[in-house]
Hints:
- By secondary structure, chain A is an all-alpha fold.
- Chain A has 13 helices and no strands.
- Chain A starts with a helix and ends in a 7-residue tail after the last helix.
- Helices cover 73% and strands 4% of the residues of chain B.
- Chain B has helices spanning 2-17, 22-25, 28-48, 69-75, 77-109, 115-122, 124-127, 130-141, 147-154, 170-195, 199-207, 212-239, 244-249, 261-270, 275-307, and strands spanning 51-56, 59-64.
- Chain B has a two-stranded antiparallel sheet with strand order 1-2.
- Chain B is flat, with a radius of gyration of 26 Å.
- At the A-B interface, helix 1, helix 4, helix 5, helix 6 and helix 7 of A face helix 2, helix 3, helix 5, helix 6 and helix 7 of B.
Amino acid sequence: MNQKTVSKALLNAALLVVVFIILFPVFYIVQTSLKSTADIYSGTFFFEAKTRNYEEIFTGSRSNFAELTRNSLVVSSAVAVICGVIGSLAAYSISRLNWSRWVTGGILVWLLFINMMPPIVFVTPYYLWARGAGIYDTPLAVIMAHMVLNMPLAVIMMMNFFAEVPKELEEAAVIDGCTLWQAFRMVIIPIVRPGLAAMAVLVFVFSWKEFLFALSLTTTSAGRTIPVGIANFVQEFNIRYGEMAAGSFVAMIPALILVLLAQRHIIKGLTVGAIKG
Amino acid sequence: MTQLSLSDSRDLRTMLFGQGSFKYWALVPLLVVLTVFTVLPIIQLLQMSVSELEFVEGELVSEFIGLRQLDNLAKDPIVGIALKNTLVFVVAVVIIETVAGFTLAVAISRTKTLSILYRSVVIIPLLIPPVAIGTTWSLIYDFNYGLITTILIELGVQNPPLWTADPDLALISVIIVDVWHWTSFLFLIMLAGIESIPPSLLEAARVDGANEFRMIRHVILPIMAPTILVAMLLRTILAFKVFDQIFVLTSGGPGTATQVISMHIYKVFSEQFRLGYAAFLSLLVAAFMTIFVVFYLWASRVVRRRLG
């Protein structure tokens, strides 16, 4: 019994070390973001916290974080809405409306392919199209790419949620005189709303953190998002560490909020494509 | 004949406008998006990779060059290096993250009160932007003011390592960051696997006198083996995507020490501005990965059947 308590304590001690390793970089970035340049250079652990770095990136003349944040919000929200609508419609049809197994299987494989293909493959064609359509360096171009990248997650997550809804519900609605569309909109969607919300939030976060397309399809702050802005800090000759840390922390905020929300749904979404236990 | 086509068109009409038409309409937007944005790009890539493309005063000029990109490939010294770096990176991260993820999953599956804390914290690295992970670690690695350097100098180390700026350490530095970032992904898959093992099985082993180590070695590991293999395969596929952190931490340098495939294609595209050649390389990557993905789908089907 005593030995068991000791081993439990050791296990938890080891896991708290893991928690520390995971959380430490986040603490470190917050700490650095609150330091003055002199405190960063001296490497001190005792310093007077200042919000100057945050003020600088949002309102300073050398930075354009206000515009980047606006673009990020526009892109991520638009992608969440588009994926939410297209994804739930398609997922409902695939999982509930008696398609042959070839059709559902085919679409599923197609989605998994998109999920697994290195995104660099699509960069050059999207770049050409964005130039051709006159949307290069606008949020629209980034929205287009992010919509495609997140579609597998949206459809597969929603398919799981629809599968949990009892079939009798829409049958009852149809007998009562609803069309399928009405049954979908007024009976099924309200039931899966928590799942739909979780999916939309996760798509938002994935779009928020995407870098490659946001980088390749834009060139000024008219179209760039926060990750591209942060990466630019590193490329500069004299790195403004404090501002870089402040920007990085701003970029982490949606993720940190999300962790506090429903994590069961998130975990399903994070492992799309893996076999379920 | 007439009869048949008539009933066909009636079928089509009910399909599009009849009672059950929602079934089709609901799927149309997705199919349009997937066709336009994933099938057409592949066709576009085929076309681009047999062309020389250039923007002249904002207008795209395209010239057919047939298979001359093959010569460019043969003359490109970076491709081989990038391929080697990518393989080293992928093999290293998959092995380390699998071992770490499995260990973590076994450990956390044994906890009760703090379990929620562990599970919440562990998914954080998968949600924060990889670019922010990159900047954070570049601060940690920084050889002037970085955390590691500061600590090492405090401890009296004379010449602390340069990490990402040292050609011998750069790839290892990048691998460490990836382990921090992606171990959670394997952890989540492993944990789901462990939690689906019937408790009666573990109980029986315990009654038979198995200690923790033997239980993991002789009960959990054999049951989990197929899941672990498929998870490793999936992570291998995803690891080939690596780009963001390398872009931030090293940009492929110093020299070509951390040049990986995605990074190389990006540079061909954005720095050398050779669109046709970038498209050609993209197509090769797509073909190679297709083989991998098909193999993965086959393997995961086999395992799913075996697990019932």
